[in-house]
Structure formats: C-alpha cells, structure tokens
Amino acid sequence: MQRDLLWYLASKRLRPDHDMMDPTVVDLVERWNALHKEGRFSALNVREYWRIKVPEIYSPQLNCNCLRITFDEELAQKLLFDPLERFMCGGDPAQVFQMVKQLDTPPSLCGRVFKNGDPTYGCRDCGMDPTCVLCAECFKNSAHSKHRYKISTSSGGGYCDCGDKEAWKSDVFCDIHVKGQMVQQSQNPLEKLPPDLTERIHLIFECILPYAKELLTYEVVLSIPKDLEIRESDREPTNLSSLYDIRDTYVTMLYNDETHTYDQVISTLERAIECTHKDAVAFATSIDREGRCIVRCSSFQQCSQTKSLMEKQTSRGGGRPLKVQVMDTYIIAHQIFASRLLTWLHNILESAQAFRLIFSDIVNKDGGSIVENIIWTDTNMWKTARVQWHRLFISGMLMDQESKKLFARTFTKHYSKMMKDFILDDHDHSVSVASLGVQLFTMPTIAHMLVAEEDVLARLLNTFLSECDKKLRDNKLALEHRSSNTSSFRRIQYILYDLKYLLGVKPEIWTDDLRRGFLHGYSLLLRLLGMMQGMDPMVRQVGTHMEYEPEWESAFNLHIKLAAVIPLVIEWAASDRIVLIKAYRLLMKSLGELGTEATRRRYVRELLDYSVSCIEYDVSSAPVSIHLPLSRLVAGLTLHLDRYGLNYNSPEFLVKGKPSPEELMEPVLRTQVMIAQVHAGMWRRNGFSLINQIYFYHNVRCRQEMLDRDVMLLQIAATLIDSNEFLVHLLNRFNLMNWARDDYEIIYLRGNDEDNMRQTVVLVEEYLQLVMTVVAERYTPGIGQVEEEDRIKKEIIQLLCIEPMPHSVLNKALPEGTNHETGMEKVIDEVADFKKSSGATKGYFDLKKAYYSHYNLFFYHYTREEQSKSEVGQRARKKAAGEEECCPPPVPPPFTVPFTMIVNILQCDVFLHIIKTVLKRMSETKAQSVSESQLQKVLHLIGYALHEEERYHRNSDPYFHFTRRAQKINLLALLEGLVGHHRTSTHKDLLAWTIRKYRVVLNLSSDISKPAHETEAVLASTSSSEASAASAEKKRRAVIATQRKARIMAKMASMQQNFIKTNETFFQETPSTEQPVDIPESTPMDLTERLPEDMIAIGPRQTLAQPLDVTYTCILCHQEDAVGQGDGTTGRPMVLGGLIQRSTVLSRNRTCHLEQPENHDPLLLPADLHWGVHTSSCGHAMHAQCWQKYFDDVVTKERRRPYRFRQNLSFDIEKSEYLCPLCESLCNTALPLLPGVTYTAATIQSQNPAPTKSTIPIAEWLKGLHTILKYKTVVMSGVRPDEEGSHQDDVQIDQTPQRGAVPTSGVVVAHGTVSLPATANSMGTGGSAPILVVGVTGGGGASINVGPSLLRQVQGEGGLRGRPPRWPRLPLNKKHKKGVDGKEEEEDYSSCAEGIWTPPTLPTVAVDLMSVSSPEAAEAFTDLFNNPAATTMPTFPSQTSDMMSSFAHAVYMHGLGVNPNFSSRRIPLMVWDTAAYTIHTLEETQRNASRALLTSLSSRQRDCLAALVKFAAHVPLCVKKKQNIEGAVVRLLSVLLEGGETTPCVLEWDAFSILVTLSLGLPSVFPNIQGLAIGSVQDLHLLQVCFLAHLVQLLLTYEEQSTCTEMKVVDKTSETNQESSSSTGNGDAAWLASLLVHCRTLANLPAVNVEPQNLLDYVKESCLPFLRCCGLFFHFLTEVPAPEELQSSVWVPESEFYCLLRYLGLAVNHLKPTFSDPGLLELVNRWCSDSRVGPLVTGAGSEGCVRSWTRINQLVSLPHDYSELINTVSQFPCPASSGDDSRTPTMCLVCGKMLCSQSYCCQTEFPEGSHQMVGACTYHAHHCGAGTGIFLRVRECKILLLSGRIKGCFVNPPYLDEYGETDQGLKRGNPLHLDATQYARLHTMWLSHAIPDTIAHTMESNSSVLATEWQHL
Questions:
Q1: Cys-Cys crosslink for 1147: which of 698, 1064, 1170, 1676, Cβ 3.0 to 4.6 Å?
Q2: What is the distance between the alpha carbons of residues 132 and 646, in angstroms, rounded to a whole number?
Q3: Residue 80 has what DSSP assignment?
Q4: How far is CA 1589 from the centre of its chain?
C-alpha cells in the first residue's frame, strides 16, 4: 500500500493535473512547492496569500442587505481551499485522501458527534452510567436494541460511545464497528505515509490552527494583525480595485447572550436600524443560531451611532446592555474564512486516522499551547466559533486514547480558570468548553489517572469553595435568592456534575497517589459540608407571625446536587481500608472542630432509677437546621466499618474532639423534634418556608441523604448508648420527662391550657413513632440482614398498599440510585401483577396477596395522607375478606451483628414504663394526656417485641425475653383491662391480636403456661359476651326495620288505590304507551308497530307518524317547555348551544383550498369536499331569552377583563364564543329548536288514511323543471331588480314569447337557457292562493283563473307562454354595508358576475307544461307546490324569528370568515351546505366505527342533527329576500339540468349537497309561494336525479388494471353465473356495464375491461355513503321511524344498501328500474358530453378528480416504533435557516408535512399586512385545516392541538410504553410503540370535529398563570 501511494504521489508530481485549475492557483502551488523543496516554505507564505484574497472574497459590501449577505463559495473553494489541498497532497486531493483513508483499519470507535436534538440511546442493562449513549445507526445494529434501552435527545456536544470498552459492561461494539475490533492494528498509520506527505500535512495544519486561533479570539476590533494588514500600496485602485472599494467600510456586529429575550432584541433592532418587524425577527434568529450577526454595514460614524443606540436602549433600568461592536470589514472577512477553515479541517480529520494523529501531535506540541489558549479564550468567542473548536477537539483528539489523556491533563490544569470564566460568561453550559468535561471524566481510567496524578478533585472543589467563601456568614453558607451573584453561584454548581462524573466508578486497585488525591479532595469536601452544617437555621416564632418568608430553595438545590456525589464518595472510601480509616478520622476531626462549649453543656435527668446526663438545649426556642450533611456522612461511613472489623469506638478513630454518641446524634435529634413540634402546631407562625422544607425533607428526591441518614444515625447511636439512657435522651429532647412521671395527670397537668395539652399528646405520638422507626426500620443493607433488592421490594409493597399504581407513578415514588435507576424492574414482577390498560385507563401494578402481610402502617416514608389512605384501603380489604379490621405490625428482618443491641430497647425498663403509662392512662376515663393513636403505636411496639422474642426463641438465643420482663408491669393484665373499654373500640381488633400474639409467645415457655390458659379464658369469655350482645342488638334493629317497612308499604298501597279511583276516567281514556314524550327521536320500540317494509321516508308510499310534542328542560332556569308542532307557538322559544366551524376534514384533495371566502359562491359543495362548514352541539337546551341573557353577561364580564389576561381564555368573545353553562363545551352560536315539517302532512294522512294522491311521473316532472329554466330571467348587467317590487304586476302572458337577449335601454335580459349560475334579489311574499295567469293580446288582455282544474283548451300553437317580468331601469351600482365592527362588505349581487336570476310564475310553467304534455301532468306538477301539507307555514314568535335569522347569519359569518351582512344572498346556501356537510361528517364517523347508520348515535348527535335539518327546512322563512332562495334554486337547476362551460361539470359536484339544497329550496322556487320539504314525490324524483348523477360519477371514475382499445363488456360464462342469470343482481350488473360503456364513450375516455358482477359490487359499495347520507337527511326531516337494520349492532353493508333503497322509496331489489326513464338517460348524455369530463379523469388535472368515493380520511401513517420516527426527523432542516436543523420538528398528522415549530425563524405574517407574526403550525393549520390542526411534536412526543390563533393544548400522544403510558418530553425514556387504539381515538376526535371542544375543555381544566402563546407554535 505504501509503495502504491509513493508511486501515485510521484506520478502526480511528474504529471500535475492543471486542466481544471485556475492559472493563478497553478502558479501559486508551484511556487509553494518550490519553496518547500528549498526548505523555506512556512505559514508566512500562506498568510501573505490570504492577506489579499480573503478580503476580496469574504468582505461585506458597503450598505449591503445584512440579512442577505452572500459570498462566492465556489470562488473561495477555487482560490483558497484548492491551493491548500493540492499543496498538502502534492497532487489530486481526492485520490490522495482516498488512499490515505484506505490505510486505516475499520474504525472500532464510532465517535459520531451529536447535534442539538439528535436522538440518543442508552442501555439500562449495559451502560456504565447514563451518559453512555449510542447514535441511531449504532443502536439499530447493536444488541442493545433488545435490552431495556432509554431514548432521549441530545443537547449537542457529545458523541457516540459505540466501541468504548469503558462505557459498556457488555456488547461494546455494534455490528458495524465490531469489524474494527476483529482487525488488529498492525502498525501506526503514520508509518505507512510517505515522509514528504506527512511533512506537508504538518505544515498546512500548523498554518491553519494558529491562524484560526488568532482570528477567532481576536479582541482588537478596529485593526488587524500586522502581517494581514492591507498596505497603502494594495489600496491603490490600479492595483486591487476590489480592496479599494471596501476601504473605510465597517460593520456593526450584534452578539448573542442569554440575558436578553427575543422580544427585547427584536424591539431594539426595530428602533436602532429602523427595520421591519419581520427583518428584526430574522436578525434575532440568526444571532441566536450563530452567536452574532452583522446588523449594519456602513461608515464608521453610522455604525458607531447604531452601536450607541442599541446599548442605550438595552441598558435602561440598570441592566446589562447588549454586546455590540463596530468592526473593520477586513477582520470580519478573516474571521469568516477562519470559521470555514475549521469546518474544512474537521471534515479532513473525520476521513482518516492519520490526519487525526498529525493533528494531535501539533495540538499537544509545546505542552498543548493551542488547547490552553482556546480554553483561556473560550468566552471571547461567539457561539459558532466555540462549537467549531469543541467539535474539532472531539474529532481530532478524543477519538484516540493517548490524545484523550493529554487533552484531559490540559483540561484539568486550566479547569479553575475555565470555570471562573464560565461564571462571568452569559452563554449556556452546552456551548462552553467546560461542557467537554463529561467526555473526559466519565472514562474510569482517565478519571482515576486525573485523581491520582493531577489532583483533579482538589482542583474542582477549590474552585467551588472559592465561590462559597463569598457567601459565608458566621462560617455558614448563606444563599440569598435575590442577591446579585445568585446567577454566578448557580453556574458554579456545574462543578458538582463534573465531580459526580469523576467518582462514577470506584477503583478496583488503589495506589498511594490515588489515595492521596482522593483524600485531598475529600478533605475539601468536608470543608464544604462543614459550611452547610447547620445552614439556614430556624427559630420558633412566638407571638407574631413571621413577616418575611426566608429563602430556602437555594440550599435544597445545592443539597440535591450534592446528594448525587456523597454516596459515590462513601463508595470510594469504603472500597479501601486505609482510605476508610483516614476518611473517618478526618470526619471526626471536622465534627469536633464544629463543636462549641454550648453544645457540650449538660444537665442530669432522672427517670425511674436512671440518672442521665443530657445535653442542654431547647428546640422550641433555639435555632434548628434541617441541613446536617456532616452528621449524615457519619451514618453513611459507619455502615461500612464492620466490613474491616472496625466500629465507632475502634482505637483507629481516637482523635481529638471526637464527639460522643450523644453529641453525634444531637443535631439529628433536634431536627426530628422540630418536625414533631411542627406536627403539634407549635411552629405555625413560621410560615410556608418551614412547611416546604419539611416536605422536601421527606420527599423522595431528598430523603436518601436526609431522613434516611438521620434514621441510620439514630440507630447507630442506639447501639452505642444504653437503651434506657437512649430513651431518656429522646424523652428529654421531646420535653416529655414530666409526661413520663406517674403523677403527671395529678400534679403537672394543673394550670396547663388546652392547647398545651394537645401539643403534648401529639409530641408523645411523634415520640412513639420515632422509637418505632428506630426499632423496626431495618430494610437498609448493613443495618438489617437484607440486600438492595429487599429494600426496593419493601418500598414497592408499601406504595402498592396505598393503592394500585401505574408504572410511572410507582417509579417516580422510588428513590433513584447514582445512575438514575430505581431497580424496580428487577423485583416488581415478584411482588405485583400488572393489569394492562383498557381504554383511557393506564395499566397499573396490583400487589400480590401474599405480600399484604408485609404492610407496615407506620412506615417511615409515609406521609400522613399516605398513611391514612393505606390504612383505610387495608381495613376495607380485610373487611371484604372477613378478617379482623386491623393492621398488625409485620415481622421485621433481623438486625446485622453491629446493630443487634437495638432490640434491647424493646425490653428495657424505660420502654416498659412508657408502655405501662400509656395503657394505664387509656384505662382511666379522665386521663387527658393519652390518645387512640398512642394506644395504636404502643400496641405496634408490643407486637414488634413479641415478634423479636419469637425469633430469638426459634434461634435458641436467651438474650431477649420481653414477656418475662413485662411481668414487672403486669402487661397482660393491663391489656386485658382494656378489652371492651369504650376508648379502645377503634382498635379492638388490634388489641385482640396483641393479646392473642402475647398468648402464643407465652406458650413458648412451659413454666408460664397456666397464666396463658387463664388469659385465653378471659379473652374468650370477653369475646363471647361482646359477640352475643352485638348479635342481640342487630336482631332488635332488624325487627324494628321490618315493621317500619311494612307500615310504609301499606300506606303506599292505600294511596295508590285512592288515586286510581279519583282518576278513573283518565286511566280509561289514556292509551298505554312505552315511549316517553320527552324523547325527540324514534326508539327501537317504535318499530314493533310497523313492519320494516312499511317504513318509507319519502315518495308516494311515505308512512308518516304523528309527531309528538317534545319537552325540553332549560339548563339555566330549569323550567320545562315543549316545542310544538302546529303553529309553533307552544312554549317559549328554545335553543341549543352550537359550534360552527369551517372544515377541511373530509377533503379528498389536500392541494385545493378555499383561498378567497369573501368571493366564494356556496351554490353547492365540491365533489372533493375540500371545504365545508360543520355544525355541532352539546345538546343542552336553553330558553332563547335565558341564553341571550347568559351570553350578554359573558360578553360584559370578559370585556371588563384587561386584554393581556384574555390569552388564557378557552373561548374568544371577539368571535362570539362562549362555554355551555352545563358541560362547558365550546359554542359560538345558538341553534333554534323548531317543530317538524311533516306535522300538517301527518295530520292530513291520519284524517284520510287512503288519500288519492295525484303523483307525477319523473318524465313530466323533469319537463316542468326544464320549463322553469326555459322561462327564467337573468339580468346580466346595467340594472338590478326593484327591491320593493312585487310579482303581482308581473304575471302577464304574451302570445308571442321571446327567446334570447331582449335589449332594453341599458338592460340585458336573457330568457331560457343560460349557462351562468346567478341569484335573484327581490322580495317576495309567501302563501298558497289560487294562481292568476294574465295573458296579453295586442293592447288588451284577459284574466284566466287557473285553479285545481286547469284550462282544457289551449289557444295558439304551443299553448300560452309566460313572458318574463320587466324590471325598471336601475343601475347595478356597488353597494356597501357597515358591519358590526365597522368593516365594509360589498353586497353579494354586486360581486357576482353571473347576474340576477328570476324564475317564472307557476301558472306560466303550468300552461307550458300543459301544452307539451297533458293537463293531468300540469295539474300534478302544480299540486307539488300548492299542496297544503307543504305550504301551511308555522307562525313563529318574533323572538324565534330573530334567533333563526341570527343562527343563519352565524353560519354565513363563521363558515366563510367574513364580516357581518344580514342581507347576504349566500346565507340560505351556507345553511344548506352546513346541513349537508354535517350529515357527511356523521355518516363517515359512523362508517369509520363500522356501525350501522343510526347505531349508537349519542343524544347530542341526534339532537343537533334533528334541530339542524329542521332549521334548514325552515330557512325560507327567515330570509330577508325570498328572491335569494328563488335565484339560488334556479341557478342550481341550471347546473344540474343544463350545464355549460362556465358551470361545474358532473365530476365537480357533491350530489348529496345538491339534493339537500333542491329538496329544501325547490318548494319555494316560485314567486308568491312559500313551501317546505315534506318528503313528497318531488323529493323522491330529486333523489333519483341526484342518485343518478352520483352513479355517473362512479362509472366515469371506475378503474381497472387492464385497458383495451375497444370498449367491450367482458362477462364470465362460468356455471355459477349461468345459474344466477335470472337473478336481480345479474340484471343490474349487465345494465351497469352497458351504462359504463355509454358514459365513457360520450366522455371520450379509454375503454376498460369490465366484469359486470365486479362492477355491480363496486357500485353498491361506492353508492352506500350517498344513500346513508340521504337516509340520515330524510329520517330527521320527515321523522319517519327507521327500520331495525339501520340501528343494528352488527353492520352488514349489503343488507343496509337494500334497506336504504326501501326506506327511501326506491326500487327495493333493482337499480335499473329507478333510472329507466328516457328523460334520465338524456341527462346522462348531457352530463357525460361535457368537454371537461374526459380531461378531468385522464388529463393533467386528473389528480383533483375524486376516484375513491368511499375512502375515509385517515391521519398520516406513523411507524410502530417511535425510535424510527425520531430518527427520520432528526436531520429535518429548518426551511428558513439555510439548512440548520430544526429545534422543534413538528409533523402535521393530517397531511404529513414537517414544520419548524415554536421558532422565530419560521414565523410568518398572517393575515398579510396585519403585522402579526404566527408560528409555522398556526400558519399551516389555517391552510391545511381551516384554522384547526393536529400535530405531533416529534422530539417531545407530544400531540399539539390548535384552533384559531390563540387557542391550543397538548394531549396524550399515541405512542405508549409497555406499561400503557405516554412519555411526553421523553422524561422516562422507555421504548415507545404506536398504540392503535389511542391513535384511533385521536382520529375519531379529528374526524368528528371535536378538536376545538377538546381544546376548550383542556384549557379550562388546566388554566395556569403563565399563558402559552399558541399563535407562535
């Protein structure tokens, strides 16, 4: 390989490749080569070249746009980097780099440097510590992916530890890097390189590194290094014109800091450089990303002025100003180039190990001067420069073990200076060179080397202590939260993290140097702990309340950080005998030095026959501190003394000032007494500061180094002090010596107040609790004979006895070890069963029954609330199991040998005296100093003593004899005396258990068996007497209850008989019914009265049921009212709270949006449903008057609220939003409750069961519609109709009808077929009076009355024809109206280019229809519009009419997002569109859940849809101008029946929305006629036409895999098909196949192979959604009960298809008869012949054509494994930041687009021109979801919901761990997988338009003081 490389280099020198090189570069490289051969080449030659070229390329231009400064990078590569590479390689760089790379063996160490946000993976089973992580690539190819791994995101700066043997316990290498381990490195790669190449690389690296170091740390901003200066000769225009152009050009450079906020910087920039807000945001983003940014490039004077302005604005109020510098452009140019050089060098170092070795040699030369310089000047550089140097060190030095050690030594040497600079700096720790400590100190070999050889512990602690010295007060730390240097002390605490990293792995082999280094650091740590010993002391406040709450958080924050270090120090010290002895001696010495004369003052206390010398101290009046780290360190080290045969009194520990055991436990005992006094209410005037400290003292985050250590120390003291003296010391400190005297109740109680007595009682309880804790808490390795797993099991058992807990809650309640692991997974399966999650309930662990006996009621980690909750739960469990309702003490594990003496407490004289005192006073009725809790704890203590004696008896150990000693106080008699006592009723079962247990232990000794039998007899007799008394009392109460019940039942029976007799007539007249009257919809019980085939909703066979009055209860006034049917006046008007929202949920074309809603024509919904308006309701009814008052009150209240506080609201009053008063659902309107439309029809049908209806065939009906279109009038331009005119003067008949354009001075009127859809704009009147047709012949006319019998004779050819009305000449000017908010909106007709459409009169149509068809057809057609059932209009109160107008206008305003306009022509169309869209949504929601049409509809869905459909039917009654209805219907008929190039073609319609609009609008199409849709034959014909249109849509978009050149029908002639050829389905199949051929031929579409049966199945499947929508619509319109199939719990689509055909009045078993009329075929021909149909299906725009008519929109498909998702987006670049990675990549779950969320860089001005900036998600939601969005924040694993611009919330993501829990923010890091049920729940919420409501509920329940700026997400 070396020979090949030499040959290659030699050939390159002989034949240089100059073809692609610039001649200047060729000459330069040749000149450098010549100097190199002569040995005269140096860095000066390169710098001389850079002196000229760098400013030419990288200097900013004068007055340039600072946001868009660009440089010619291609020129820079050619002139600056190519010469370096070619000289360094001596030839073609690409080939040399490749050959050098081939010299490397495969890498065994990954070393991939993480960027901010990169996913990292740690292994809980194999990782040495939590900092050992893998990159995504290594993780996927390693065994750790099958282990218990933890996923998190990097903050940047670290690297992948794959291949590092010191980072992993096993599976060190992934499959990629294991190859490098298998190949042994035979020799150093540098030995394979030619010496000349090595020398050249050295020269270039030695040139680059000092240059980059000098320029990037350069502090002189107005001059440049001498050798890089531009000389005067260079400035001459004749020499270098480009340099001449930039002379005297300066820049204003603004630097980043962590002091000022984004908004402050943006505001400052807007004022200082007078830029726009958008540009200021861009500047701020660039500064935050890069660390600095040029904000002005101009003359020195202007740049200085800008600097002064910015400093002045940001220094107001005494704050630190922004760092701004005026710099020479030459310096900027060289700094930019130096930054590029570091990136170039980093890429080279990553390519081959040889380059890294050379780099390391250069950097470590001269004692690592370059590294030293960078460390010293790190804070002088900006963010990007820092990160580049850090990355260079990682890639160039930390990948090699020896280089890493050298770097670590240099790093340690300058650690103190580096941290002090960091304290004064204002950048984050992650961009400081100090952050590299984690890469060095976590390696055990390097850490141990630094401790032994560099005294690193002392260096770190000395640096920390130097800051602590500044905060000493009386030799104690005093951390003031509001002090000026709080920030510096917070930053210096990063040293404690480094300390933890250094001590992470204890040494296996100790050396003298290692001992010396550790003990030196340990001595400094003792000094620090001594400063903390007794810090923040508290004195009991007496008399007045504390005026100011003292600061306490800082001390606890320091403790939490030290709590991770102290256990590691103990582990290190305990691993070596010599170190342990010296460490213990130093600790004793430190404690002795802290002792004072005051702490050694004693006085004698006496109890029984014991005199004890106690320390004089009063906790209730002297200072007491919770912070006692030195005392607690004694407890930690003492536990390990026994390992080496040592104890507290060993001669090795005889040091001067060593504290006695009493002095040792004194500080801890004071703390315990203070906490007891707090519980007794003695410190209530000390405020919340003390309460919070006690909370955290017991909290799981702090208790390991606080409460647990205190208990250990007391147990240690109990082994060193005589048991009687120990208890007396405790009594004395609790101030209970008097209470322990026998005459306390007689002598000492006199004169004491009640408060003092309560305090004494509580203190006794706390004293007994402390004694119990000392005696019974043994689950600590070293104290009890247990292992670490036993300790964890005990914690879990106690927690699960409170209640079953989810994994996260249980894990959080357990203390963490040094590696942030609780160890729960190792033992949890042994003690608990996991119950998997179901629905929204998390999975939880339930304790196994066998472990309930381990429950300890007085577990010392319990809070009072947990203790009470656990006791209640256990008592209830035992009661349910039929056991005694008590919780006896469990059997504790035995003590270890050093702690055996503790059990003597349970048999000592003082203990027995305390027991006797409590039991005796309990038996005395008048005793006040005793309580039930004291009794309970004494019984527990007795139980522990009995357990202990039982254990000692089993072990044949005669030491412990509790029962023998208890005879002194006659304990058994005392216990028996309490049986049945009224003061022991609560704990009678526990007392019985204690006596029973006592008897069992007594039986173990044969010499005292007799008393045991006597005790048993006493207990048995007492128990039997109690049981018999209880039984008798129970029977007596049962008899009394039975008699009382009999009397009540007899009285009720008598009252019932009297009522029936009194109301006998009522019971005879009232039929029995099963249906309650207050249910508006039909129930399945209704179906029993009719056969399914009789249930037909529309058409001539319609089966109407008599509607019942529906009663609603107002949720505001709680009064009932009925919504009547007849005249609509029954009861007061009522409404439902409703929410109207624009929607794109059902869109089948995400590329299409409603761009200009103010100009949109809502005549019909598009086929792809890319927009719509959805209406929903919570279903709660209110009186209209009550609702109006409630809404007004809400508006008044919120408008009084200051604007800045409105951001927290879950509703926006500016958009008329409010919350339902009952359920707090979001609403923005009120939906009126109206009567049904079929009341009159049902009444007529019931009066005349067999009516002779005159039905009209569909052909004749179509002719009538065509006649309407033939005589329609369209005013195109110039004039408009008279708003005050009437149709009374316009019903004239002309013998010579005119067609075409009729010009009338400035008027263009068209008759007949017009292709433009338009609207009418005249006011009409309702009614159904006889129709008068006026004919005009010449100058006169005659009146002809056309009533029920039409004219039998028709004059002239073709009959009488109606002439369109003539309109007066009025100019069609634009008219503006003022909205509510003052905004103007044009009248709709003025903005419509299609003109104003007006239908003819009904007589005109009837006469024409009679002439072309028959009088019967004309009469039948007339009956459709004159039918009393349809034209009988209800009369509504004015308030109801007002509410109807208000709701209709709300649909228009919220649906289109426009200004108010109550006279808009689009209002009725918007109402019908929202009805259709809402029905579409409900149908898809039901189909998505695989439910039948009406199955499981909620009451709110039924009530909302029923009210909406009824309101839509009554819309013609609330429109100000009826001509709007007429014109809209005529326009839609023109679209449906005529078509044209300017109207949508058949593939662009939504057939169902056309059906809804025409069904509800067509009855009112004629002037002077107001009608309602009632499900007549006209509705059936409309259904047939729209159904046919949908069928044509399906056939035109039908696709098959294979195509043929000729259209033909392929029919399989299998035996099965032959047998079924006569079936109905086969006939439909053939008909559909022929229709398919016909349609595609007319549309000029290519032929497809068609199998008829497959086509039939496709049509039935695709038609079903349309039919389901029709079924919903007509069910709620006509209120005809639905068949059982539509409410079945099992959904069978094919059965539902035929059921719907029957229910809708169509042919039941055939499709063909429904569409057999020739008139329908003519429509098919017209639809398919449209020239746009073919291109829509196959042309360039075919992607917008709907092809899947049954597809339900789904949220984007997510990977099952969350790690795959986060790996995919880890490299997602911010679209606005030139390729930089996005900090918060967020995925839209609707369309899948990735966005850069919550970042200033991607904010957009919206709406345009508003100067309001919104985040990427808010902006995207406006276009993608019409303002509503659902997003996944990938790195945080959160679901973000947005609605509008100011509302949003976070909800649980669909990714769950194995325990069924989410992990928002990746705080736990468990492996996450997609939960289909949870994701389906999110999909249902989105599909049902429930996002705004969910946001409102979440915001209302999680209201916080700090509002989230949702608009910036």
A1: 1170
A2: 37
A3: I
A4: 44
DSSP letter (8 states) at residue 149:
E
Distance CA 1282, CA 302 (A): 67
CA distance 1597 to 1746: 8
Q: Which of 736, 729, 577 minimizes the C-alpha distance to 664?
A: 729
pLDDT band at 1032 (very low <50, low <70, confident <90, very high): low
> The tokens 């002895």 sit on which residue?
581
Looking at every residue in the chain, the average pLDDT score rounds to 81
Model confidence pLDDT, tens digit, residues 1439-1474: 888 899 999 999 999 988 888 888 888 999 999 999
- pLDDT category at 1342 given cuts 50, 70, 90 is very low
DSSP-derived letter for residue 1713 is G
The alpha carbon of 731 is separated from its chain's Cα centroid by a whole number of angstroms, namely 54
Query: Which residues face 607 on adjacent strands?
Result: 610
- Residue 1246 confidence (pLDDT) above 80: no
- Position 978, amino acid: L
Backbone φ and ψ of 837, nearest 5°: -70, 150
The DSSP output letter for 1319 is B
Query: Phi/psi at 1871 (nearest 5 deg)?
Result: -60, 135
Return the pLDDT at 1555: 93
- Report how far apart the first and last C-alpha atoms of the chain are (Å, whole number): 57
Per the CB < 8 A criterion, the answer to whether 561 and 492 are in contact is no
d(CA 268, CA 257): 14
Q: Is 1045 exposed, middle or buried (0-12, 13-18, 19+ CB in 10 A)?
A: exposed
List the structure tokens of 726.
């120990």
Q: Which two tokens stand for residue 593?
A: 């030095």
| 217 touches 380 (CB < 8 A) | yes
Residue listed under structure tokens 């300017």 = 1542
Output the six-digit token pair for 522.
Answer: 């340990």
Chain CA centroid to CA 1370, Å: 59
Rounded Cα distance between 278 and 280, Å, is 5
Three-state SS sequence of 1422-1485: HHHHHCHHHHCCCCCCHHHHHHHHHHHHHHHHHHHCCCCCCCCCCHHHHHHHHHHHHHHHHHHH
Whether pLDDT at 1907 is above 70: no
For the chain, state the CA radius of gyration. Answer: 46
The Cα–Cα gap between 1416 and 1253 comes to 12
Q: pLDDT value at position 683?
A: 93
Q: Which two tokens stand for residue 415?
A: 């650690």
Cα–Cα distance between 159 and 142 in angstroms, integer? 17
Residue 208 and residue 225: Cα distance in Å, rounded? 15
Q: Return the sign of the alpha-carbon dihedral for residues 310, 312, 317, 323.
A: positive
With b meaning 16 or more CB within 10 Å and e meaning fewer, what string describes 744-757? bbeeebeeeeeeee
Give every CB contact of residue 757 below 8 A, 6+ residues apart in sequence: 749, 928, 929
Neighbour tally for 1286: CB within 10 Å: 14
Residue 1666 to residues 475, 1164, 1483: CA-CA distances in angstroms? 84, 15, 9
Backbone dihedral angles phi then psi of residue 496, each to the nearest 5 degrees? -65, -30
What is the rounded distance in angstroms from the CA atom of residue 1661 to the CA atom of residue 1671?
16
In the block, which residue shows the tokens 């034959």? 1577
Longest dimension (CA), the chain: 142
**Measured distance CA(1824)–CA(189) in Å, rounded:** 57
Phi, psi of 1679 (to 5 degrees): 60, 30
Using the structure block, give the residue that is written with the tokens 């006046």.
1129
Q: Quick one: which H or E segment has residue 1847?
A: strand 1847-1851
- Between 1565 and 1614, residue with greater pLDDT: 1565
Dist CA 158 CA 131 (whole Å): 9
CA separation for the pair 1342, 863 (Å, rounded): 101
What is the DSSP secondary structure assignment for residue 805, as one 8-state letter? Answer: B
Question: What values do phi and psi take at 1857, rounded to 5?
Answer: -85, -175
3 state SS for 457-506: HHHHHHHHHHHHHHHEECCEECCCCCCCCHHHHHHHCHHHHHHHHHCCCC
Evaluate if residue 117 carries a pLDDT over 80. no
